């Protein structure tokens, strides 16, 4: 960690956060009610989001503090969720250090020159706080507005960042990424170390500015067999989570990826307080696999948002029931909100969760 | 099952098949050596395939018996694998019944009018043997050439076929497919019943013409939580596997999908002899989850084909070791051969498997 990040100190937080259900559940204490928020709760499923984003490119929108604040707050206002998630994109810190990339609508992040050799490391300098002053500003504006509602800091994990850099864009099988990992483990490790510095720096700036929890998104890491995860990925993700802990050990760390049924314990051991579970593994099964040592987050199948209220309500209650077996449960979807989701269905989920199990 | 399919009778098979390692492993008997073949072993990774396919559209190539025979035999000649897999595409039987679709290079199957309502069922008539006489011809030509090497019959499972029909093409999350399943379970069931008839018919024609094993590919079913798989999918897949069994109970049935770690026992219970395992779940773990009741197939990570011989050899031996815990093991990749794979690496895998564990 560079000295500049080491010098960060944490802003005073709102005293009302002490009782926030999200933080209580994450710390395996008893919350007043089961907390709920949704991955990608801010975004294209909301008409008010489309309105404020109109004509503004995704990556630009992430760097305008007033806009980031508005977008981040929209789902908190509409749904009454128990946390805000900092509105950003996984590639924002890469762009901030100077990687030539763009987000193409309907495609995703596209990297101008995919990562191939040691020389390419020079195109990915370390992140310095001065490169993301606007992020600290956004977080400051947000926490002032949010009061007793926690803000969850957001960053992509080294593996998922690497997958975009190596593939050049979204990919189904991540063959190039895994090929690099297998053929040149030293270069792979150097890349992941660099990305760990960037990911950690991005989270630390958010925590220093007032975020009261963080989520590390290792969205595509489920493409790896467990043994490879442990050898080639876990150390760098652990470094990111440790860097957050070093700055403020009171900030819960949530660790999430999809298709990670086989990786759950290893993702916990990387230094998480809460393990995010995708919709494939029922939360009671996940809790068993995790040895009961972690709070869990999840995991309603986003596709159930398109079902009737009757079916949806039943699935919410099943998820609550399965989650009650864990030492702490943060209700969420098992993946991000689909852009086509009906906000009224999401509101119904929040109300059903808050009403409890019976 | 329509009477026409019921009238099929099974061709006499080559007596040398009695000792085929693939069939022995599938039947949980001791094979002379661990059998090995590769999903998508015939295809774009082979220069001889590209040569014979030049200028011929994918779906046309699947309907020309001489070409199907040549393509199916190519990997058997080159690698000395222990089985041929019938060269076809998952959507061939849909096209055969008259669904308007095409395979777009670089994209995959594209359906002209995606499936939405009960009326759309009329566009998916039942499959009759007369619609696929060329398939029987291809299988006949092949088994004559293959002698003591088993031919594995090929078909897509109802869920995966439905996913293409409903999405209109390949999709990451299958949101539309799952939405239909949740919102209109009756229509969903009617669709899957129809597709089960088509899938079963496609396999029965292959078995009647001489295929000595079958694999039911439910490629995308790992997108479902277990409870939904059991309620909404398993019955139709079970009907397909039962239809094969009814025709010839001696023909082993392999059942495979990716991301199915949570579904393995349910996929076995659908009526499989062999459960295919993707690369995420080590075969010893899979065997434990399956209660030791099934042979397993898999599951080398295709990305390891891009590693050094040293790493690749080690991974092959690890897979053999894990597979030795199962009552039967058919070596395979944990997913299809990537088009960029080097055939020499695949040959090395075959030789390493045949040389055994030490």
Automatic annotation (TrEMBL), chains A, B:
InterPro entries: UROD/MetE-like_sf, Uroporphyrinogen_deCO2ase_HemE, Uroporphyrinogen_deCOase
EC number: 4.1.1.37
MF terms (GO), sorted A to Z: uroporphyrinogen decarboxylase activity
Binding site for substrate: 40-44, 89, 164, 219, 335
Chief subcellular location: cytoplasm
Keyword Cytoplasm annotated: yes
Uroporphyrinogen decarboxylase (URO-D) domain residues: 35-44, 152-168
Keywords, comma-separated and alphabetical: Cytoplasm, Decarboxylase, Lyase, Porphyrin biosynthesis
UniProt key word Lyase: yes
Site (Transition state stabilizer): 89
Compartments (UniProt record): Cytoplasm, Cytosol
Catalysis performed (reactions): uroporphyrinogen III + 4 H(+) = coproporphyrinogen III + 4 CO2
A Pfam family annotated for this UniProt entry: URO-D
Listed pathway(s): Porphyrin-containing compound metabolism; protoporphyrin-IX biosynthesis; coproporphyrinogen-III from 5-aminolevulinate: step 4/4
GO biological process, one term: protoporphyrinogen IX biosynthetic process
Family membership noted in the UniProt record: Belongs to the uroporphyrinogen decarboxylase family.
Function summary: Catalyzes the decarboxylation of four acetate groups of uroporphyrinogen-III to yield coproporphyrinogen-III.
NCBIfam families membership: hemE
Subunit-structure text: Homodimer.
PANTHER family assigned: METHYLTETRAHYDROFOLATE:HOMOCYSTEINE METHYLTRANSFERASE RELATED, UROPORPHYRINOGEN DECARBOXYLASE
Protein name: Uroporphyrinogen decarboxylase
Species of origin: Kineosporia babensis
Taxonomy of the source species: Bacteria, Bacillati, Actinomycetota, Actinomycetes, Kineosporiales
Gene coding for it: hemE
């Amino acid at each position: 960690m560079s000295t500049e990040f080491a010098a960060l100190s944490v802003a005073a937080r709102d005293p009302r956060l002490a009782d926030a259900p999200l933080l209580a559940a994450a710390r395996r204490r008893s919350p007043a009610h089961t907390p709920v928020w949704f991955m990608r709760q801010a975004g294209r499923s909301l008409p008010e989001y489309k309105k404020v984003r109109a004509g503004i490119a995704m990556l630009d929108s992430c760097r305008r503090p007033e806009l980031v604040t508005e977008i981040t707050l929209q789902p908190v206002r509409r749904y009454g969720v128990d946390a805000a998630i900092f509105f950003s994109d996984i590639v924002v810190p890469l762009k901030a250090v100077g990687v030539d990339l763009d987000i193409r609508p309907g495609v995703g992040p596209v990297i101008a020159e995919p990562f191939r050799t040691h020389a390419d490391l020079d195109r990915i300098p370390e992140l310095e706080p001065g490169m993301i002053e606007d992020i600290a500003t956004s977080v400051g504006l947000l926490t002032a507005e949010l009061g007793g509602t926690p803000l969850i800091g957001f960053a992509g994990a080294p593996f998922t960042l690497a997958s975009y850099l190596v593939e050049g864009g979204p990919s189904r099988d991540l063959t190039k990424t895994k090929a690099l990992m297998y053929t040149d483990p030293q270069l792979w490790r150097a890349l992941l170390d660099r990305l760990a510095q960037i990911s950690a720096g991005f989270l630390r700036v958010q925590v220093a500015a007032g975020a009261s929890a963080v989520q590390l998104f290792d969205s595509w890491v489920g493409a790896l067999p467990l043994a490879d995860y442990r050898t080639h990925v876990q150390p760098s993700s652990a470094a990111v989570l440790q860097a957050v802990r070093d700055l403020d050990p009171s900030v819960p760390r949530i660790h999430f990826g999809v298709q990670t049924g086989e990786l759950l314990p290893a993702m916990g051991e990387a230094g998480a307080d809460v393990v995010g579970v995708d919709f494939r593994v029922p939360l009671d099964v996940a809790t068993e696999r995790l040895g009961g040592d972690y709070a869990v987050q999840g995991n309603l199948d986003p596709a159930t948002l398109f079902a009737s209220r009757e079916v949806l309500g039943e699935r919410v209650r099943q998820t609550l029931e399965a989650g009650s077996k864990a030492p702490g449960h943060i209700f969420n979807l098992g993946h991000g909100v689909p852009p086509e989701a009906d906000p009224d269905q999401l509101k119904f989920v929040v109300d059903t969760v808050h009403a409890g199990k019976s």
